[in-house]
Design a protein that fits this description.
It is built from 10 helices and 12 strands. With 256 residues, it is an alpha/beta fold.
């Protein structure tokens, strides 16, 4: 069972709540996903005066919440948004995003570390959206982050795992840190791949919300994440560069 900041989670599937065609489909997709955590944006909660209805809906699901600082591009903005989210959602958990490049939505790693240190000192349990850069990861851990969330690919791109070597290195360098692949997952095979590599969980949103059938995709992603984790824990065979017979020759009958 996955544990984040002392909290045991029922699932390794973190699912976002934005962009769904309707509130009813969002609810059905969440139930199909059996998500361990839901991510929610303070901006979504406050938009168009409809926040209270949305808040009532997600409370019905009784799934742990991970508010985020989506859209923030400065340390001050991210910290202020986190403080507001804690007051509204009654949780110290925060998915910290400090965006440095608006075309790629790549994190501003300098601002990210600074904001993480500030929020950790204020008692937040920080889940930083970061790159696979090992130096940045070390600084985030030093700042008090017990969880790191490296991207698989740019947010909403659906490209999957862009830098497999970098993510494998990150997993190897931080064996005792909870690592969650966040962003870029587009297919169940991408999610399974991340889990097969030994990552602790997967966070996604767009791949489910924008699918033709979000409920069916949520179910597919859930199955893939479970399968990938089972495969990792099964200690899979090591690939080799030559054929090996699955049936041994020893004891085989020969005809004269």
């Amino acid at each position: 069972m996955l544990t984040c900041y002392g909290t045991k989670l029922e699932s390794r599937f973190f699912l976002g709540t934005a962009q769904y065609p309707s509130p009813a489909i969002l609810m059905d997709a969440m139930r199909a996903a059996r998500a361990g955590v839901m991510t929610v944006s303070l901006r979504r909660e406050s938009a168009n005066g409809s926040g209270s209805k949305f808040w009532e809906l997600i409370q019905e699901l009784n799934v742990p919440l991970l508010p985020n600082t989506a859209g923030c591009s400065t340390v001050r903005e991210a910290v202020t948004t986190a403080q507001m989210a804690r007051e509204l959602f009654k949780t110290d958990w925060i998915k910290l995003e400090v965006i440095g490049h608006m075309d790629t939505l790549q994190p501003d790693v300098f601002g990210l570390v600074e904001a993480a240190r500030i929020l950790t000192n204020e008692g937040f349990k920080v889940f930083p959206y970061c790159t696979e850069d090992l130096g940045v990861a070390e600084k985030l851990v030093d700042a008090g982050c017990e969880v790191l969330m490296p991207w698989g690919a740019p947010i909403g791109s659906g490209m999957g795992i862009n830098n497999e070597m970098g993510l494998r290195s990150m997993r190897a360098y931080f064996p005792d840190t909870v690592l969650i692949v966040d962003a870029g997952i587009g297919l169940p095979s991408h999610a399974a791949k991340a889990m097969e590599m030994g990552f602790d969980a997967v966070l996604l949103n767009t791949a489910v919300a924008r699918a033709g059938d979000p409920v069916k995709m949520a179910n597919a992603m859930r199955a893939a994440i479970c399968a990938g984790r089972d495969a990792f824990e099964a200690d899979p065979m090591t690939p080799v560069n030559f054929a090996q017979p699955s049936t041994p020759v020893l004891g085989q009958a020969f005809l004269n």
